[in-house]
Amino acid sequence: MTDRLEQSKALASDVRLSILSWLAEPDTHFSHQITGKPSEIGVCVTLLTEKLDMAQPTVSRHLELLRRAGFLTVNKIGRWSFFQRDEAAVADFKAWINDNL
Question: Facing residues of 72 across strands?
Answer without folding.
Answer: 85
